């Protein structure tokens, strides 16, 4: 009779750590197009792809391209909004006294956008907008 503990050494019954794939988990339109052309190239000529399947895949490709275009447009809109906000805030805050959350007062001398975050230049340092408690006239 075999030993009962040997079942636990079997890889089918042991728990292994979950690993993550290191590749790109998203497909872009170029990869999708390569996949589609490879599928067409290697399909069986005696059993070709169903027309509805093919049209469905072309529709998916078109939808993918539109989503990518919408994403690019939204990114451009978000970036322009950050700069628009910086100009609007800058035009009203420069020259005024700002008070930070720790109670320190600074005179705003300019504005800057660093990594998409609007910051106030005090001459000594750059202060993030979430550090400002009050703006004095």
UniProtKB/TrEMBL annotation:
Keyword annotations of the record: Bacterial flagellum biogenesis, Cell projection, Cilium, Flagellum
Name listed for the protein in its UniProt record: Basal-body rod modification protein FlgD
Described purpose of this protein according to its UniProt entry: Required for flagellar hook formation. May act as a scaffolding protein.
Pfam families named in the record: FlgD
InterPro entries linked to this entry: FlgD
GO biological process per UniProt: bacterial-type flagellum organization
Organism lineage string: Bacteria, Pseudomonadati, Nitrospirota, Thermodesulfovibrionia, Thermodesulfovibrionales
Family of the protein in this entry: Belongs to the FlgD family.
């Amino acid at each position: 009779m075999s030993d009962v503990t040997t079942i636990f050494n079997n890889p089918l019954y042991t728990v292994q750590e979950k690993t993550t794939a290191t590749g790109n988990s998203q497909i872009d339109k170029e990869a999708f197009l390569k996949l589609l052309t490879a599928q067409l190239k290697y399909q069986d000529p005696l059993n070709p792809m169903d027309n509805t399947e093919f049209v469905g895949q072309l529709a998916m490709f078109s939808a993918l391209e539109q989503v990518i275009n919408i994403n690019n447009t939204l990114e451009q809109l978000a970036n322009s909004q950050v700069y628009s906000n910086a100009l609007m805030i800058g035009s009203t805050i420069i020259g005024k006294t700002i008070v930070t959350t720790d109670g320190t007062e600074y005179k705003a001398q300019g504005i800057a956008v660093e990594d998409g975050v609007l910051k106030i230049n005090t001459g000594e340092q750059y202060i993030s907008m979430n550090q400002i408690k009050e703006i004095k006239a």
